[in-house]
Amino acid sequence: MRTLIRSAAALAAAGLTLTPTAAAAAPTPSPGAATVTKAGTSFLTATTITPGQPVRVGASTGDHLYWSFRAEAGQVHEVTATVSFGKARTGPSTWTVDVFDGLRRRQACAAGAQTPTAAATATSVTLGCTLRRVRPWAEPWSGDPLPGTYYLRLSVTDLPEPDLGLPVEVDLLVGGGTEGGGSGDDGELAAPLVANTRAGTVLTAEPAPEPVAEGEAGLTGWLPEPGSRWVWTSAGGVLAAVAGVVGFALTRRPRRP
């Protein structure tokens, strides 16, 4: 931090200014993109938008606003949203922007103020979420982002009850989907992951029985295998009978003449 301050001071002394890099710049709308003026209230009614298309919609505090967009492999999307308050509020409020994939799994944000809190005197609050790079393939048990449709949900999670229903204006923009560079993946998802629903083969004829070996048809073929439970049961029965006879002979009283 001290090195950065000294560098900025040296540049200022030289008549130069330190400007932020392009990676830190906020996403800008695509030229000629039409502004979307509506939002859905659930996953099923989410309004479809394209990356780079600006959104401006009026809503009420407490509404859940939904949008959806398409993401391809290798892209990194940055979501920015600004909520402007039209009337004075009685207390602070906490807002959040959530991202879900096509299976309704919540995706983590790699950067951005996903859940900021606006003070009671603030006129607006800015939210942000930089998604992880979309992978071309992933293990079925993992939650890594895959190509497909993604859903955005903007809502308020904490606010004073008197502020519920106050009008707000929402400006939202999804970055144009920049390439995330080298992935290091060893494969590619050739087809969507679906359950195997192929039926088995239906047998139209009764299968022929397996032939019996000639050695098994001898005189000893009916005997149990050595070490089987039948051998141990028979041996145990014989020993029990012998022990009973011996015990009876030892314990009986001799007869008098």
Distance between the termini: 119 Å
β-strand percent reads 25-35%
Q: Helix fraction? A: 10-25%
- Tally of helical runs: 2
Largest sheet: 6 strands, mixed
Query: How does the helix and strand content classify structurally?
Result: alpha+beta
Unreliable residue stretches: 1-24
Mean pLDDT: 79
Radius of gyration: 38 Å
The oligomerization state is single chain
Give the overall shape, derived from the CA principal axes: elongated
The number of distinct β-strands equals 13
Instruction: Provide the succession of SSEs.
Output: HEEEEEEEEEEEEEH
Secondary-structure topology with pairs:
Blueprint lengths: L1 H12 L33 E2 L6 E6 L4 E7 L3 E2 L1 E8 L7 E8 L5 E2 L1 E3 L5 E2 L5 E8 L16 E11 L8 E8 L3 E2 L49 H23 L6
Parallel strand pairs: 1-3
Antiparallel strand pairs: 2-12, 3-11, 4-13, 5-10, 5-12, 6-7, 6-9, 6-11, 8-10
